[in-house]
Design brief:
With 67 residues, the protein is mainly beta. The protein has no helices and five strands.
């Protein structure tokens, strides 16, 4: 079963800071649908769409429970 709201395109989040539990990693993040499927050195990943984050932080799965 597929979710019509989740795209099948490959998106690269270029030059992001991925916040992990124990460190922050500067990388290109490759997304397929709503899932990060890979990390690559900044400037090396390819995708159907590339979004330049300009060093902004990405916190996957982050939910603000105070709202």
């Amino acid at each position: 079963m597929s979710n019509p709201e989740v795209s099948d395109i490959r998106v690269v989040l270029r030059d992001g800071q991925l916040a992990l539990p124990d460190r922050v990693v500067n990388a290109d993040m490759v997304l397929e649908g709503a899932v990060i499927v890979g990390l690559a050195p900044v400037g090396t990943a390819n995708g159907d769409e590339v979004w330049d984050l300009g060093g902004r932080r990405v916190t996957p799965g982050f939910i603000d429970t105070h709202i």
